[in-house]
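Anyone up for a design puzzle?
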């Protein structure tokens, strides 16, 4: 814009002119008003998709819906939310812990508290980002005060986990701690005896190891925990 024109416009503005008419040529070029958008075709109520789960196949999202509303046991009345599980379908390695704790109950994701951070850190040390594995628990709801899961709660929740394993199709399942290992193996043998030795659980190669919360209380066992996770990651083809 030339200096003269700018000055002229400034004088116009100072004398109270706050618009300028468009030339006829400009009016001819102005875009036609847009037609109103066609109404969207709805075939039924549309459930909002959690952005974290966008990209998962519809069959999996359908499976997930009733799990999030589950009332199969008494924990549904004390939980903040269902902690469904996290990770990609097709992850070659799937971890199964015991049950959500307080942090998991609040955040809706398994293994995000202190024990979970140790799991994440150990995986990272081995060279595996947490997002490459699937993580779930025997129970999807927190037992009040983090008490031990009751047999009826585990029996009610196991079908969800078994279906989830079918969707993930991991090459290796890794059980974390006594509860997960004994439940998945239907065994009463203790974790100290079972850890580090492959077994089979529900048709999947299964490696038992310690629970990371146990490692936090017994740091002397950390090298064994790291070795087990290394074995699982290697055999799953992650490293
Ligand atoms: N302990 C578990 O067994 N699972 C969690 O998700 C957190 C702590």
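Challenge accepted. My sequence:
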């Amino acid at each position: 814009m030339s200096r003269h024109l700018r000055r002229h416009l400034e004088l116009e503005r100072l004398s109270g002119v706050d618009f300028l008419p468009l030339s006829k040529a400009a009016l001819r070029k102005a875009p036609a008003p847009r037609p109103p958008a066609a109404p969207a075709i709805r075939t039924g109520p549309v459930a909002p998709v959690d952005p974290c789960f966008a990209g998962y196949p519809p069959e999996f999202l359908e499976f997930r819906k009733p799990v999030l509303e589950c009332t199969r046991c008494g924990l549904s009345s004390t939980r903040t939310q269902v902690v469904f599980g996290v990770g990609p379908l097709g992850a070659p390695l799937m971890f199964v812990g015991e049950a959500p704790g307080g942090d998991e109950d609040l955040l809706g994701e398994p293994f995000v508290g202190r024990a979970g951070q140790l799991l994440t850190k150990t995986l990272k040390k081995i060279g595996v980002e947490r997002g490459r594995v699937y993580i779930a628990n025997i129970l999807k709801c927190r037992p009040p005060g983090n008490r031990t899961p009751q047999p009826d709660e585990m029996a009610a929740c196991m079908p969800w986990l078994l279906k989830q394993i079918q969707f993930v199709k991991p090459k290796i399942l890794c059980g974390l701690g006594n509860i997960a290992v004994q439940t998945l193996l239907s065994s009463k043998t203790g974790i100290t005896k079972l850890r580090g030795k492959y077994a089979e659980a529900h048709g999947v190669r299964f490696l038992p190891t310690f629970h990371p919360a146990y490692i936090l209380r017994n740091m002397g066992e950390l090298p064994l925990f790291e070795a087990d996770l290394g074995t699982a990651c290697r055999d799953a083809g992650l490293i």
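A detail worth pointing out: Strands lie at 93-97, 134-137, 172-176, 199-201, 204-209.
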